TrEMBL record:
This is AI-2E family transporter. It comes from Cryptosporangium japonicum. Belongs to the autoinducer-2 exporter (AI-2E) (TC 2.A.86) family. Residues 350-363 have a biased composition (Acidic residues). The keyword Glycoprotein does not apply. The lineage of its organism: Bacteria, Bacillati, Actinomycetota, Actinomycetes, Cryptosporangiales. Keywords: Cell membrane, Membrane, Transmembrane, Transmembrane helix, Transport.
Length: 392
């Protein structure tokens, strides 16, 4: 026979837990809604943090050798901008130098494709090709309004992208200049326990974000080397620009790899013919499969402390929910969530019962040298420095 008192207690506990879960879900929904409204500010901030993880090591080197923080940050920012422009020019100039040959190759490639389509097994006649072209032309004319609106949307996207890049560069400069002062300033602004918890989580999240960017750069470099070697063996021209494009595109999940692979296949088709284009396509598919299923999960799981399956699931979920941006941010967001969860679990865990009560705990981190503790440049932009200074 069921006990009425135990049944009421179980129902009361279930109702209380259900109400708490509903409140947590409501708070999560409100937080996501607020983030969505503030996305125009958060997106440049995220981009700036990602770039800062790459540019902080040279800035730290300059600051350790006596450079003023503003001068070091300005030098590294200008150097990064010149490197980015040089990369774009390094891709564009060889392509522009062979633009005439590329145009002639496109015409020849279209002709070879038409000859191939007119033969077996397709046996498509010239009349059928002409009708197909007329159909495409009429549909394009009928959808001129949609194309115009799409072009306006594309212009708006490009404009927003340029604004995001400019804001990200300015934020990167301020992170490099005043970053080590943020955590001490934050400690003075937060009350009670938060003054310890938030800076600790911020420092761990910064280290995790740096691991993500380094692993992504390693994956892009591996892709560029493998695909570049394959293109060189096949004899495709513009190997170096295509390899650089592959490395840069690796930082944009899914779309970047597809775009870089498409460009490589088109150039192989134009200059070398359909056979070499198919070989290049096979090389790219093999490298991308190795990257997506082996290299990227292994590198990111090591650097971020996440299992390879978690990385794959995070990218899939982020892409399905938020598209390209979701795919780009899925892995670092998952890693930061893991950092927060691990910290909360540490704080909520009971002390080890096997530890001696009077034993002095061993320090988890070695004590910094005096010059490291007093020098903000010794730490990362988000890991903090000696307290007592506020950001300029």
């Amino acid at each position: 026979m069921l006990s009425s008192s135990k049944t009421r207690a179980a129902l009361s506990s279930s109702a209380r837990i259900s109400m708490q879960v509903l409140l947590l879900l409501l708070m999560t929904w409100v937080s996501l809604w607020i983030l969505g409204k503030a996305w125009s500010i958060l997106w440049p901030l995220v981009v700036a943090l990602l770039i800062t993880t790459l540019t902080w090591p040279p800035t730290r080197f300059l600051r350790r050798h006596g450079w003023h923080p503003a001068l070091a940050a300005s030098t590294v920012t200008v150097g990064f901008l010149l490197l980015a422009i040089g990369t774009i020019v390094g891709i564009a100039l060889p392509v522009a130098a062979q633009s005439g040959e590329l145009a002639d190759g496109i015409v020849d490639g279209v002709g070879r494709l038409r000859d191939w389509a007119s033969g077996p097994p397709l046996n498509i006649s010239d009349d059928q090709i002409s009708k197909a072209l007329d159909t495409v032309t009429s549909r394009v004319q009928d959808s001129a309004g949609s194309i115009a609106s799409g072009a306006l949307t594309g212009v708006s996207v490009i404009t927003n992208g340029l604004i995001t890049i400019v804001l990200a560069l300015f934020l990167m400069f301020f992170f490099l200049k005043d970053g080590p002062k943020f955590v001490p300033w934050m400690q003075r602004q937060l009350p009670g326990r938060l003054a310890t918890d938030v800076p600790t989580v911020a420092a761990r999240s910064w280290l995790t974000l740096g691991s993500f960017v380094r692993s992504q750069a390693a994956v892009g470099l591996l892709d560029a080397i493998c695909i570049g070697i394959g293109l060189w063996i096949v004899g495709v021209p513009l190997v170096l620009p295509l390899a650089v494009l592959t490395f840069v595109a690796a930082f944009i999940p899914i779309v970047g790899a597809v775009f870089a692979g498409f460009v490589a296949v088109v150039i192989a088709l134009v200059f070398n013919g359909p056979t070499d284009a198919l070989i290049v396509l096979a090389i790219i598919l093999i490298v991308q499969q190795l990257e997506g299923n082996i290299f990227q999960p292994m590198l990111q799981s090591r650097g971020l402390g996440l299992h390879a399956a978690v990385v794959l699931l995070a990218v899939t979920l982020g892409g399905s929910l938020f598209g390209i941006v979701g795919s780009l941010l899925a892995v670092p967001v998952a890693a930061i969530i893991a950092v927060i969860w691990n910290y909360i679990r540490e704080q909520l865990s009971d002390p080890d019962p096997d530890a001696e009560p009077n034993a002095e705990p061993e320090p988890t981190d070695p004590a910094p040298a005096p010059e490291t503790a007093a020098d903000p440049a010794a730490a990362g932009p988000i890991t903090g420095s000696a307290p007592g200074t506020a950001p300029a």
